[in-house]
Design a protein that fits this description.
The structure holds 2 protein chains of 2 kinds.
Chain A (H helix, E strand, L loop, with lengths): L2 E3 L4 E5 L4 E3 L2 E3 L5 E7 L6 E5 L10 E2 L10 E3 L8 E8 L6 E3 L3 E6 L1
Parallel strand pairs in A: 2-11
Antiparallel strand pairs in A: 1-4, 3-8, 5-6, 5-9, 7-8, 9-10, 9-11
Chain B lengths: L3 E4 L2 E4 L5 E7 L5 E7 L5 E7 L6 E2 L10 E5 L2 E6 L8 E8 L9 E2 L3 E5 L1
Parallel strand pairs in B: 2-11
Antiparallel strand pairs in B: 1-3, 3-8, 4-5, 4-9, 5-6, 7-8, 9-10, 9-11
Classes of the chains: A mainly beta, B mainly beta.
Chain lengths: 109, 116
Amino acid sequence: AQRVTQPEKLLSVFKGAPVELKCNYSYSGSPELFWYVQYSRQRLQLLLRHISRESIKGFTADLNKGETSFHLKKPFAQEEDSAMYYCALAGAGSYQLTFGKGTKLSVIP
Amino acid sequence: SAVISQKPSRDICQRGTSLTIQCQVDSQVTMMFWYRQQPGQSLTLIATANQGSEATYESGFVIDKFPISRPNLTFSTLTVSNMSPEDSSIYLCSVAAAGTGTYEQYFGPGTRLTVT
């Protein structure tokens, strides 16, 4: 069975500090990993996916198959980064997403 | 990305009644899904809405409780039947486009349901 674990329910950082949101997964094959973000009063939206290796809004995430992790990082947090972040996994060849429980990021001015 | 709308955006219902939630997409999409997000919890997949055939339900969800229709490639409905307070959740529809090489999904704004 596939599983996504986000160990932190809430993460508070000061503006300008580095941010790391942790995500670990359990899956026997080669998964596709995503980070979704939900800003206050907005819908859930895709932030980035591991397959594209892109940086969105200064965020990056690297898939580490050895550690089965897909942590989300940003070197300098901004107030507008405050949101709920969900890590999600799609199994090989599948559209079904398994979500972690989410981490609420609060950036303190 | 597809633009997805849901109706209603929120509702308060009495136990024992049913509510039908609509999901409309502005383009034809292959895959449509329904999720539930209970208070303080993550998203849980209820079912995959299949066009022209019965929906595929995940473990713990049954058709009698959550009947789903998908008459075409841009529209789907989810009905929450015989509601109880435990059904109070946000219900979201999402879509994915097959053949794009990725499995990302796009989400609707959600329907916030409160059952009293």
